[in-house]
Structure formats: C-alpha cells, structure tokens
Amino acid sequence: MALQLPEFPWDSLADAKRVASEHPDGLIDLSVGSPVDPTPGILREALGDASNAHSYPQVWGTPRLRQAIIDWFARVRGVPGLTERAVMPSIGSKELIAGLALWLGLGPGDTVVIPEVAYPTYDVSARLVGASVHAGDDPASWPDSTRLVWLNSPSNPTGRVLGLEELRAAVARARELGAVLASDECYALLPWDVEDAPSVLDPRVTDGDVTGLLVVHSLSKQSSDAGYRTAFVAGDEQLVQRVVGVRKHLGLIPPAPVQAAMVAALDDDDHVAEQRERYRARRETLLTAVRGAGWSTESDAGLYIWAGNGEAAREQVHAFATLGILVAPGDFYGDDTRVRIALTATDAVIEQAAARLRANIA
Ligand SMILES: Cc1ncc(COP(=O)(O)O)c(C=O)c1O
C-alpha cells in the first residue's frame, strides 16, 4: 500500500509569507497556534527535579501521573470515576491522533468520520491505514463502514462547541455503527461565548457507560508547554489498554521528566486560569479589529478567530498579508471561504496587528 499524504499545508503559504514579510514594520505570524508565553515555573521546576532519569519511563504513565489525570477529569471536566486502566499519557496529542486508527486495527474498507471542517490530522489518521474518510457533522450521514469517529469540541478552526444533545446523538450513532468515538477536547478550557465545553465522557452524555469512547486532551495551549509534548487519552478501559499494548511495542513513551511536569500542570488550576485570561484579552482586541475591518467572525471557544469577508480564502490571506499579517486559509481545514487567525502572539504583537487593521480602514 503506497502511503499518500497531502502536501504539508503550511508549505503552500510561502508566497503570502513573503508578501507579509515585506511590511515595513515586520511580519506578524498568526497562521499557527504556537504558544508564546513562558512555560509556568511549576512545570519547569518539576521537569528539572525529575532530570535524573536513568531508567525507562512507563508507557502507561507513572502511577502518580495516572492519578493526576483521573483527579483532573473529576475536578475540572465533570468526569468522575475513571480508573487507572482508563488513562494514558501521550507525546503531545498530534501523534496520538495520527496513530489511533492504526493502533485500533483499521484498514482499507473501513471509514473514519471527521468533522466537515477539521484539523488536518484526523484525515491523516485514516490515510495512514488506507481507510476512507467521511467528512460529516450529521450522525445520520455516517456510513455503515464507519469504525472510528473523530469529534473536535471546541473546534479548531471554527471554535464551535458541541452541546450535550449533540454529543449524545454522536455517541448513540457511533454505538449503533459499532464504531469507536474519539473526542479531541484540547481547547476545552478556553470557552468564551459558551458557559463550558462538555466532555464526551460527561455522565450527562454517557449515562455512566463509556464503552467505545475516548477523549484526547492536550496541555500544550492551556499550560503553554507545547515544547514539552504533554497530552493524554482517557475513556474506555479496554480501548486504552489496547493502545497501551501497541505503544509498548513501539516505545512511544513521554520522557520521565515530562511526565513529572504533567503532574505539576494537572494539579494546578491557577496557571491555566491565568493563561485563559491572557487569551481572553487578546481575543477581545483582535476580534474588535477584525470585525471593524469588515470580517464577520465565529469562535465560541478555543484559540482561533474564524473569519470571512465573502472573498475566497486565499484572497483574504493576501489582504492580511499586505498588512504584514500572516493567517491560515480555510482550505487547510476544508472551507475556502474563511481564514483562521491564531491568538498566539504576545499582547504587544496582538495590539500591533489590531492597529494595522484599524489603520487600514481609517
Ligand atoms: C484540534 C487539535 N488537536 C490536537 C492538536 C495537537 O496538539 P499537541 O500535539 O500539541 O497536543 C492541535 C494543535 O494545534 C489541535 O489544534
């Protein structure tokens, strides 16, 4: 089977980046969601304290880390009662997302369902195993051959949040099809225009039965530690243990000092609240400026503004590039009428971007 992966999306932004770089006051890159704020001291200290790491770490995570994940789900996500066998850390969440279809044994003839407008790695997970992809948000449209369903709430790029009823409908349909349902909830702690972003493992969704369900969560954004690669999966014990079993063979293990840093991050809610307020302020500034410049916006939650002005996405990318601002075209995600603007720049840089947008309409 020849592996067919698409061009890496950001490679196609070279021209827009060149135009944006010619701006006299320099390039402002809002095309990727790469955190800029320092990693909090508690994580760095925990990482350093664990730097004597002569023995192999555990694929399944240290007992202390497993407990921290369990406690975090109960305290922060309204998901009580997870067991030790129902959680596992990963090396960031992207590798886990890309590999899941492979480890669950999917192959040609199987279908992976992904959101209509989606983070590209769900599609990659299907391509890696030669499975078909069905991009559809309506559970009624999911084909009989579906073996894995990806949800992403809050969504990258749209910021859309799935409510309890939508999650229940997705779970019911996945079970009817005998498919695994995996929910990527890595932006769940960045809600703006919604009260919260419920987990698919929430008892109001599952009625206490998590069979066939997995949640993927990442600390990259909420703990500003994308360079550490900290994420985890939780849910159906049997599925998690199947994944642990494969990963033992592959040696896919978060380094021991990183596992210690994850414990520190998961035990502390204060730094997450602080980080959230930074992003909230940046979003306010940028949202007002983007709207003022003629774009309509969506994004109830998460790290991006999803904006459109009626033109094709690449035209909009060019319009931003002439202001020295690089944004991502919606076609990266399956919608060529919008652009995605990341909130991951310092307060000063976000203010500069807003000023350029304001000056443009003045
Ligand atoms: C929806 C979504 N899932 C997963 C990831 C991967 O994050 P990480 O590998 O840092 O955990 C990203 C990163 O941007 C994302 O937007």
Give me the number of helical elements.
12
Helix/strand/pairing category:
alpha/beta
Could you tell me which ligands this complex binds, including any ions or cofactors? pyridoxal-5'-phosphate
Please, what is the average pLDDT? Answer: 96
CATH class of the largest domain: Alpha Beta
Describe this structure in words.
The chain is of the alpha/beta class. The protein has 2 domains: 9-38 and 271-361, Aspartate Aminotransferase, domain 1 (Alpha-Beta Complex), CATH 3.90.1150.10; 41-268, Type I PLP-dependent aspartate aminotransferase-like (Major domain) (Aspartate Aminotransferase, domain 2), CATH 3.40.640.10. The protein has helices at residues 14-21, 41-49, 63-76, 94-103, 121-127, 164-177, 203-206, 237-250, 256-267, 270-292, 313-322, 347-361; strands spanning 28-29, 87-90, 111-114, 132-135, 146-152, 180-184, 213-218, 231-235, 296-298, 304-308, 325-326, 328-329, 339-342. Strands 2-8-7-6-5-3-4 form a 7-stranded mixed beta sheet, sandwiched between helices. Strands 9-10-13-12 form a 4-stranded antiparallel beta sheet, covered by helices on one side. β6 (180-184), α7 and β7 (213-218) form a beta-alpha-beta unit. α4 runs parallel beside α5. The longest helix is centred in the C-terminal third of the chain and has 23 residues, at 270-292. The mean pLDDT is 96. Pyridoxal-5'-phosphate binds at residues 33, 92-94, 97, 119, 152, 156, 184, 186, 218, 220, 226, 231.
